[in-house]
Design goal:
11-stranded mixed β-sheet; single chain; alpha+beta; globular; 3-stranded antiparallel β-sheet
């Protein structure tokens, strides 16, 4: 059902969930398909490729961020329901994001299989490819148990190309949803991306928003989630929680996670890279309210390709030098753009 609410943002109502016996991958003749979404974010970041694939029967999907040369990485995990896999916690050749909750982690194995095949199945230490991944719980928006598997992960990597990031209901975000204050108020969201370049510095942000919370624009408007079909309005969840504490209000639904990737070409030492990721991950509460709850499993993968240094001038030295704090402040705005793009 689709209707336009009073803010002008079309409602994307989620079907009422059903958790009885369900059909699985074994019940369908599944063929991985490309997952183009509703639009594309273009980016100029040589050495970074994006691939998406989906099973329309779910629908559910996988998104792969591929860095063929590899990149140093930091992982920031928050919330109470994290679904995460990694081969090396500080280095990655690919990040695999998937639907299917814990069962969707099989897509990571497919990405690893495809990367191994690309080096003629050599398994010497220097030939190993590191794949990390995270999943969202997307069963609450569909009536089956189809999940991303190794074949879908492999297919997503095979579609990977530079310069284009499918957004909207695509890849891992095809059945993502937000604003789960009540099942009748939940709305489809999706995956978003944004890119910014300042001089030689590049920042690519991507996120699959599947949160308890709602998506909030910079002016405070709730643009997706907690949609009241009776009034055509959306509002911040804390208002509903106030009513719930007073004895008359909805409760929060389980099955939530926001999984994100942040890639920069700025050379940062390990501690600075970790803090850079934490700063950006923490900033996402502005665009997703509430965020990092006990019913969310939020993960951010922060990668650097180590290609450029932060700019320095004779007037900026020592304590006054440009550092990862300034970079994080800019990247936080890029990530907010990505959050908003997931809702359009």
């Amino acid at each position: 059902m689709t209707a336009t609410d009073r803010t002008g943002h079309p409602a994307r109502t989620v079907p009422t969930p059903s958790f009885g016996p369900a059909r699985t991958n074994d019940d369908f003749d599944l063929t991985p398909q490309p997952s183009p979404g509703q639009g594309t974010v273009e980016f100029d970041f040589p050495g970074v490729e994006i691939g998406t694939a989906e099973y329309a029967e779910g629908p559910t999907g996988t998104t792969v961020v591929h860095v063929p040369a590899g990149a140093r990485m930091s992982i920031d995990e928050r919330g109470g329901a994290i679904g995460l896999s990694y081969g090396d916690k500080q280095f990655a050749h690919a990040i695999c994001l998937s639907g299917g909750s814990l069962y969707g982690l099989g897509a990571c194995a497919g990405v690893a299989d495809e990367l191994r095949a690309r080096v003629d199945n050599r398994v010497g230490w220097s030939d190993l490819k590191c794949v990390s991944g995270a999943i969202i719980y997307d069963f609450g928006t569909r009536h089956n148990a189809v999940v991303p598997d190794a074949a879908l992960g492999r297919a997503a990597l095979r579609t990977a190309e530079p310069g284009r990031f499918p957004v909207g209901r695509a890849g891992a975000g095809i059945s993502a949803s937000v604003g789960k204050i009540d099942s009748s108020r939940c709305e489809f969201s999706g995956q978003g991306a944004a890119f910014r370049q300042i001089g030689d510095i590049k920042i690519l942000a991507a996120t699959v928003v599947n949160a308890v919370g709602v998506i909030v624009d910079r002016d405070g408007t709730v643009v997706r989630g907690n949609h009241d079909p009776a009034t055509g309005t959306r509002r911040l969840p804390h208002l509903d929680y106030e009513e719930a504490f007073a004895g008359d209000g909805p409760t929060t639904m389980h099955g939530n996670t926001t999984i994100s990737v942040l890639v920069t070409n700025v050379r940062l030492e390990d501690r600075a890279l970790e803090q850079f990721g934490r700063q950006v991950h923490g900033s996402m509460h502005r665009g997703i309210q509430p965020f990092h709850t006990s019913l969310d499993g939020d993960t951010l993968f922060t990668l650097t390709t180590d290609e450029v240094d932060l700019p320095t001038t004779p007037s900026r030295v020592g304590a006054h030098a440009l550092n990862s704090v300034g970079l994080g402040s800019i990247a936080a705005e890029v990530m907010w753009d990505a959050i908003l793009r997931s809702a359009r």
